[in-house]
Amino acid sequence: MNKKNMENDDFFDEASIIQGFDIELSESNALRIDRLVDEYEKSILNRVDEEYSENTTISDRLADSIAKFGGSWTFIGCFGALLIVWMIWNTLPFIKPLHFDEPPFILLNLCLSFLAAFQAPIIMMSQNRQSARDKHESVIDFAINYKAEQEIDDIQKHLHRMEEDDLNTLEQFNGELLEIKKLLASIESRLSRLDIKKDE
């Protein structure tokens, strides 16, 4: 009896049930489905990346590179160091003949204005392209989710049909079992009558 209980426990451990969308899945099947979905999504994202790379021009790549560098701590550190060196160079009294932008740093203000004027549109171009790509990916995600929902509905309908078939089969089996019981009861009654007659 203990061995039988241990076998039942092992069975339930292996087939631990996971509820999802009213469908019972074993853990191994759920892991397999997750792996397949991940592979499918990766293949789609790789395809989107390929299309994105194919449709990207040199100017687009340059804008992406500038936006990537302009929005990093590396840029902030380098630009901050350049500003500090610029101001120190142009304020040290012992190298006054080498000053090219004395306070109030008019040339520096002009350079900063040019940088802001050109960097902002370039970053906006890159962001517009990224938002277009994100929109495309969201449409793909919606299509995948919609297709998955349809397939889940089909699986549910199939499971309900199987359940109905099982119920019908069970009812037929119960009916046939009742008939067999009746036949056995009639046979037993006849045998008991024959035994009584023999005894007389």
UniProtKB/TrEMBL annotation:
InterPro entries: DUF1003. It holds the Pfam family DUF1003. Residues 145-190 form a coiled coil. The chain crosses the membrane at residues 69-89, 105-125. Keywords: Coiled coil, Membrane, Transmembrane, Transmembrane helix. This is DUF1003 domain-containing protein.
